[in-house]
Structures are given as C-alpha cells and as structure tokens.
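Bumping with the actual sequence this time:
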Amino acid sequence: MKTAFKKLVFGFYLCTAFCAAAASAWAKDAVVAAVATPLSPPNPIIIQNGAQYSQGTYAIGTIQLFYTVQGYQFPAGNFGYFTLDLSIQGGKATPPTNYPLTLSLKQTGSANLDVVPVTDGFNVDSVNWHGSTKVNINIPALVATNPSFQVDGSELVANLQLVTPNRSNLDTVTTIQVHLLLAHPTDCLKAYSFITNNDNTAQIGSIQVSKKVNNGQVSSDPQNPHYIVVVTNTCSVAQCVDTRFGINSDFQLKGAQAVKTFSSNSLIDTLSDLSSFFDGDPVASPKGVSMCLTAPATTLCGSGGIPVIAGQSFLVKADITIKSNASFPPPAQYSGFDALLLDGGSTGNCTVPGSLNSVADPNPISTELNAQCVSGSGKVSCAP
C-alpha cells in the first residue's frame, strides 16, 4: 500500500515537471480533452498537468487517472470505464486547420493494460465540433495471473493518444494515461481451527480407532470430538463473512443439530481462550447440519453474510463422530478438516462457490488428525 502511494506521488511530480512544457504561444486549433462523468469505479484520482490556457489553446499535456485496486492480484477482464469529452479550441488563423478531418483514439506503449474506446474515430467538421465516448479499462487475463504483477504496489499503465492526419494543422497535445495500483489488503480477520475432545477442554492431536469383531463396526476414542472454526476480527470495523467447512470422509456430523454457531465479545486465538469461552456456557445458535453458513442482507452487511464485530469472534462448532463403516485399518492421518472464509453474501445461500475473503489469514485453513489403530480383546487386529 505504501509502495503504491509512493508511485502515485512520484508520477504526479514527474508529469507536472514534464508536461508543463506542452503549452505553446499562438498555437493552432487544438483538441480539448477532458474526463467527465460517468466513471466506474467512480473515485479515481485525476491529475491534469500543463498550462490550463495559452494564447487560444487549452494545452493539457497529460490527464492521469489513478485507481487503487485492493486485492492480492488484479481482476481479469473489464475493470471499469471513464467518459472522455472532446472539443476544439480555436487558435491562430494561419495556417488554417483543414476541416473536415478524422480524429482517432489509439493506445500506445505497454499492453499490460488495455484502454478501449467505444468510439475510436470521429469526423471533426469545424471549430464548433464536440464529441464524447466511453472508454473501457480492461485487464488481460495473462496479466492478472502473472505472479510478477501480484506484488504489493504493482502498477499497470495504459496510454490513450489523440491522432490526426499529417498536415491537418490541428494540435493533439493531450495523452490520457490510466494507472492501476495494486494494494494488498491488511489481513485483520484471523482464522483458527481445532479438533477438541468431548468437553472442549483439550485439543486432540490423535484419535484411537478400533473395529469390533462381532458386528464389524468402527469406533473411536474420543467417541464424540468437535471440529471448531474460530474467526477473530482484529479490524477496526465489522466484517461480513460466509463460512464453508468440510470434514474427513471417514467422519460424519452427529445429531440433527450437529452444527452450532457462537459469538464472543473477546478475541479468541488460543486453545486456552477457547476452553474458557465454552466453560462460560455460551448461548448457541443451532444451524442443523449445514456445512456452509451465511445470512441475508442487513443494514450492516449489505450483501449478506454473518457480521463479525470489531474486537469480537465468531465460532462454528460441529459435533462429529467416526462412521461405523469407516475404512479400517485407519490411515496414519485424517485430513480434510478444512474451512473457507468467504466474502459475506458471495455464496448466494451457499449455492455458488463464493469469493475468498481477502482480509482473512490464513484462508483457507485446515487441521489434520493423527490416527492410532487399536486391536485386542473383542477388536479386529490392526495387523494386515
């Protein structure tokens, strides 16, 4: 973020010094270019350099638009657009401008960013002419996925040049320059996952698995562990999230209300914090057996999602048990206990994949569970 700001400031002073020379006294007729509304996104920093007016010519050497893109990479495809207004400012009479003539808009320089006018050619018939066009800003897919452009402070630049035929005697002194600056978000949502014992007093690093001789059912010790996901908000403002989690295929949710959510008015980031929280007998919000949690749009979460207030924590607790027909002998380690934190409302009630929340760290998260095969009296031997 700091790198992006330094580049913006450096570009401003460099172009201020360079572009001021664009004005010339007693100039010919000239094309006046200006960025107008509508713009999307609506909030670029717009810098106009050069002399505002000199002996009949409105001579802006460069119009720069600076956009800050919050994310870990540039989004591929259409980023937005701006509106470009064009008109003619009269200058000296000799030599006369040869109207009518064609005014073209052409991109020059790097192809890392595309600026594409909806109308790229105009028929200019007199000094009273006026034209306007929407200009799309597009990011090539190869640029968006290129790691060299995913570094904090990376910049994409595109130049749009005004072009007239030779000997037309019409000045085209303005270049429209678009800058996209990548600023990595601050990771302020902290995510944690735990597998705990029956009463949430200890984290389970391993689980004992056995199989009965008489009925062939697989069981475990502890019998009813919990998979817990904690989202802690260290941001200064509330964050809205959807949470999707998964469990290992040898396990299943236990009970009709196996999934419950909780809210804590404190920051939970250790097992000790987690145990203390559950010792207080917190109020649970039952979620049935849903493994993807979201909420409708609200005033706080305009697009939907579960609000996590600044300085507080959101918890998901899933009661799980090993399947009676789980594979046996067990693997050395069970994986697949994972979770994704998604932008609030981006899952469409969990019917679409959703977008990873860019301020959550780590995201996704996962936990592994070591397995110990138990054999002996009344149990199937672990030996092959």
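The tokens above came from a reply further down the thread. The chain has a mean pLDDT of 87.
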